[in-house]
Amino acid sequence: SGAREEGVHGIQEAASADVSVIYKRFIKLASPYWTKEKNEDARQAQIMLAGVFALTLGCTGVSVLFNFLGRDFYNALAEKNVDGFWHQMQVYLATIPCVIPVFVFRDFFSSKLQLQWRKWMTQNLTREYFDGRRYYQLQGEGVVDNPDQRLSADVNAFTDTALGFSLTILNCVVDLVSFSNILYSIYPPLFGVLIVYAIGGTVISLQIGKPLVEINFKQEKTEADFRYSLIRIRDNAESIAFFRGERKEVEMLDSRLQVALDNALRGILKSRDLSFFQSFYKYIIQLLPAAVIAPLFFRGEIEFGVINQSASAFSHILTDVSLVVFQFESLAGFSATIDRLGQFVEALEALEAKDEELVEAARANVGGGAEAKMKAEAEAPVAKKGSIRYETGEVSAEGDILSVEDLSLRTPDGDSKLTEHLNLSVQRGDSLLVIGRSGVGKTSVLRAIAGLWNVGEGTVRNFHSKAPSPVNGNGSSANPESNGGEDYDIFFLPQRPYMVLGTLRDQLLYPFDSLEATPSRHSDDFLSEVLNHVLLGDLLERCEAETGSCGLDANMDWSSCLSLGEQQRLAFARLLVNRPNLAILDESTSALDVQSEERMYSLLGTFGISYLSVGHRPTLLKYHKKVLQLKREAGEYSAALMEASEMDMETYLLSS
To answer: Which of 415, 489, 442 has its CA nearest to residue 631?
Structure first.
């Protein structure tokens, strides 16, 4: 029944040859687009599909018409009826331009419908992928490989093949009904021979081609892995060049390519075996109807044109009932696509189900009623594998921005402790430096504050300058048009900044866009001023010189055209533009010189942004009022909070 492996969520991660599994996944993937509950434009899609089906029926009608025209044409030819021959020729030629639009518009509207379906399905899956940070969870747990390929190539292949096969099946059914009457009226035993021949061919094709399902599934994965390796080289070209790692990269590429080629060769060998049978099956079709019906012609019971008509009808019907035989390779590839997309959707659903369980658990704690329901949904984004509790509220009179209470973190498997009973708070105007040796759990604490570390216990409270909008249990805004539910009062700056695909303006406004920006604070003058603050004033002129457009509207590959130091300064510019209550910096100045680092930290104070830093550089100590020292010795974890002035440089260097 095909290779079967269970993933961490009980999701089948290998190819399935179980028809019931494939069918259930197909229905789950295909049905949402055509239902009003899921798609507000479902009625328009249904009407277009009905039109395509009607044109498909018209194509079948044209085939039947030409079947009879062909019969009369060849009868006139056999009878040497000159007038009849030329008359049929004129009818034939006159009919062709009349029926061509039927075929052309069927293909046109079918392609247009497929494009609309692909757009809707891709956008829908993409939103589910990003909802509740599921993209981050899937990446961390490794549930599905290459989600980028599943959202692009697999969705395209699914919608194209699904619609194509639907029309093929409809055409086959109509063909079967139309031509069966013709064939049965000519000679009933010929119809019986056709059914036996088709059933036998289908059974043999299934036996020969069954391994192609697994081979196609694996081919999708190996090709995606190879393509990902090439993308990594492009994104890390400078590092590879510094290491002179070309030989090693070529070896790794060759290795992944060989895996893909070896699997492709398996597919070619199996396709070869299937082709032997398909070719034999196809060529016998040309002789079989004539061999069965020829005795009737020899006895004078039928005309010569009837032989051509029966052969045409036989070919039509056999093609219809032998769909598995002729399309087995396509069906095997389609099954692999359904498997990959099905696994992707099931993984998203598993995460969604966990979010819903968290909402119900939170609701049980706060009671009933609409207000309680809203509170439960706001407090639902707790740990997926532990019990870290995330709460939100307004900034208190004391000016609290962040509070961490009794936070204990563990490794994803839950076996090892990272931190234990950590308590800290950050108030408006505070600056806290977190230090400790590598591996003590500093970055894990930051991830827990961001809601990205899921294993442990404790409470994390974020305080906003104003009451946040209600959020769903997955962390997304209850109002899809608002970003108020997201915690934009806390801003994270990682060591390697994220460079957006877009303009320089997009870099500065991220995660917002120009439509969401406040005109007064995000004007061109303001953005230019911020760039000057972070020592990137010349970037506007450079961009304009290289692209010919306004500096802020220049669109470049920022991660490759800017040095890491420039990227870190651009990230600080983004921080100043967004101006949150609290900035959390994880080695965010590691690529800056001492003077630039000092300027970045002074800007945080100028703009009134409190900050919490993680770093090892000795120069960081003077920019912070407090120091949190994390230690782990002999398996025992400890945390000490002190004034920065109380820590001497030697102790700091030994601790970091």
So the answer is: 442
Q: Is 574 exposed, middle or buried (0-12, 13-18, 19+ CB in 10 A)?
A: buried
Report whether 444 contacts 374 (CB < 8 A): no
Residue 525: is its pLDDT beyond 90?
Answer: no
> Other CB atoms closer than 10 Å to residue 118's CB: what's the count?
19
Task: Tell me the average pLDDT of the chain.
Answer: 79
Distance CA 209, CA 573 (A): 59
Which parts of 271-362 are beta strand (E)? none
* C-alpha–C-alpha distance, residues 630 and 24, integer Å: 51
Quick check: 489 pLDDT over 60? yes
pLDDT of residue 601: 94
Residue-level pLDDT at 126: 92
User: Among positive and negative, which fits the CA dihedral 591, 594, 596, 602?
Assistant: positive
Residue pair 594/586 in contact by the 8 Å Cβ criterion = no
What average pLDDT does this structure show over 381-392?
Answer: 61
Please tell me which residue, 354 or 559, carries the higher pLDDT value: 559
pLDDT for position 516: 57
First CA to last CA across the chain, in angstroms?
56
**Do strands 400-410 and 456-464 pair parallel, antiparallel, or not at all (unpaired)?**
antiparallel
Give alpha helix (H) positions in 433-523.
442-450, 504-509
Confidence of residue 6 (pLDDT cuts 50, 70, 90): very low
Instruction: For the chain, state the CA radius of gyration.
Output: 34
| 405 φ/ψ angles, rounded to the nearest 5 degrees | -125, 125
Helix/strand/coil (H, E, C) string of 369-415? CHHHHHHHHHHCCCCCCCEEEEEEEECCCCCEEEEEEEEEEECCCCC
DSSP state of 486: S
Q: Cα–Cα distance between 341 and 159 in angstroms, integer?
A: 11
The sign of the torsion formed by the CA atoms of 389, 395, 396, 400 equals positive
* pLDDT of 13: 52
Give me the residues paired with residue 281 across strands.
Answer: none
587 DSSP 8-state letter: S
φ/ψ bin of 641: left (φ > 0), alpha (ψ from -120 to 50), beta (otherwise): beta
Write down the pLDDT at residue 514: 62
- Helix H, strand E, coil C: the string for 298-309 is HCCCCCHHHHHH
CA distance 585 to 122: 34
Residue 419 has a pLDDT of 81
SS (H, E, C) 89-157: HHHHHHHHHHHHHHHHHHHHHHHHHHHHHHHHHHHHHHHHHHHHHHHHHHHHHCCCCCHHHHHHHHHHH
Q: Could you give the percent of the chain with pLDDT greater than 70?
A: 83
The dihedrals phi and psi of 395, each to the nearest 5 degrees, come to: -60, 130
Please, are residues 433 and 613 in contact by the beta-carbon 8 Å criterion?
yes
Q: Does position 367 have pLDDT exceeding 70, yes or no?
A: no
